[in-house]
């Protein structure tokens, strides 16, 4: 079905998170995120909305310099695998090396959601969403998981996401982005500072 939608030229809105905490050939982390959005547009995706840019502490704490984070809504071919491949191509253009999970990086582009699509299925998404935090740094899903299994835990994602898609509803948790954000501790919100 997804391959047919690509063949027929159907388009879908995707929510993505952007982050960087090391300079790239484009400049500072902020300049890198701006350049990455332009590169994604050259990949054929239309940038529909972009949040403000935020300074946020490195996650987990102590793993490197502070980050610049944002979220964007982009539209493009309705196949999430194609969207993920485009995100990885853009990351590579800015020197992203996938050597260590949650390490410092020149660019991190995460596919957060494709509407209310659940991939690969509800049981697998729930398994990865509920994985213990101590296992998160060592384990990586072998396939694309949508919605992103950690988005409900991260103020650095939810605060900017609420600027562009506050009413997006998590298809399993049945809560909006705004409700997920409001459920986070106040100290988590305080760490996400507009630039």
Automatic annotation (TrEMBL):
A GO biological-process term: tetrahydrofolate biosynthetic process
InterPro entries: Hppk, Hppk_sf
Pathway assigned in UniProt: Cofactor biosynthesis; tetrahydrofolate biosynthesis; 2-amino-4-hydroxy-6-hydroxymethyl-7,8-dihydropteridine diphosphate from 7,8-dihydroneopterin triphosphate: step 4/4
Keywords for this protein: ATP-binding, Folate biosynthesis, Kinase, Nucleotide-binding, Transferase
SUPFAM superfamilies the UniProt entry points to: 6-hydroxymethyl-7,8-dihydropterin pyrophosphokinase, HPPK
An example Gene Ontology molecular-function term: kinase activity
EC numbers on record: 2.7.6.3
Enzyme class, first EC level, given as a word: transferase
Domain 7,8-dihydro-6-hydroxymethylpterin-pyrophosphokinase: 101-112
Taxonomy, superkingdom: Bacteria
Family: Belongs to the HPPK family.
PANTHER family: 2-AMINO-4-HYDROXY-6-HYDROXYMETHYLDIHYDROPTERIDINE PYROPHOSPHOKINASE
Role according to the record: Catalyzes the transfer of pyrophosphate from adenosine triphosphate (ATP) to 6-hydroxymethyl-7,8-dihydropterin, an enzymatic step in folate biosynthesis pathway.
Full protein name: 2-amino-4-hydroxy-6-hydroxymethyldihydropteridine pyrophosphokinase
Organism: Alloyangia mangrovi
């Amino acid at each position: 079905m997804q391959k047919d939608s690509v063949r027929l030229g159907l388009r879908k809105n995707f929510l993505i998170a952007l982050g960087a905490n090391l300079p790239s050939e484009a400049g500072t982390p902020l300049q890198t995120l701006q350049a990455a959005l332009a590169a994604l547009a050259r990949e054929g995706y239309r940038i529909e909305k972009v949040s403000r840019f935020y300074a946020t502490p490195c996650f987990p704490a102590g793993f490197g310099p502070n980050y610049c984070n944002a979220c964007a809504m982009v539209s493009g071919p309705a196949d999430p695998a194609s969207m993920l491949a485009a995100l990885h191509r853009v990351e590579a253009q800015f020197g992203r090396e996938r050597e260590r999970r949650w390490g410092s990086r020149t660019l991190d582009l995460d596919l957060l959601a494709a509407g209310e699509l659940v991939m690969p299925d509800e049981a697998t998404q729930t398994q990865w969403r509920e994985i213990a935090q101590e296992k998160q740094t060592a384990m990586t899903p072998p396939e694309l998981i949508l919605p992103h299994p950690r988005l409900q835990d991260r103020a650095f994602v939810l605060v900017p996401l609420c600027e562009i898609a506050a009413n997006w509803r998590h298809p399993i948790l049945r809560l909006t982005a705004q409700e997920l954000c409001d459920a986070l501790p106040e100290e988590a919100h305080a760490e996400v500072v507009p630039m």
